[in-house]
């Protein structure tokens, strides 16, 4: 595993996936970042299950696992095609809660970095939404301009027709 100081934004953000319309990280990726075995991470979670309601953590279904394999290449690593256990997905709140059950300095520092990345991702999504709204407003203005231009040409055609009718032959 990389040294803590070398954990880049990209390393962490590449492990954030969209599953069930939520940004999540998988138990295997989190365990690797925290430098613990996935089994140990999940043991701590199971010992503290009351801290992880459904909106903090959920287990992937077989269908989600198989349909997500192309998005989540890491599922292949260390798990193979025959799964003994389906992976757990942790939402931002679940990852934050992990810091209360994984008390090592490594876990704490990694959690801080992950929370910063989630904050940046959220801000990027907000910025993207604002840009989309601006684009929609521009499109509406252009549609109105197109209608106005058509109207102007229509009037010009009428004027041209009237002028042509008034001219003596």
From TrEMBL:
Residues 15-101 form the KilA-N DNA-binding domain. It comes from the Bacteria. InterPro entries: KilA-N_DNA-bd_domain. Pfam families: ORF6N. This is ORF6N domain-containing protein.
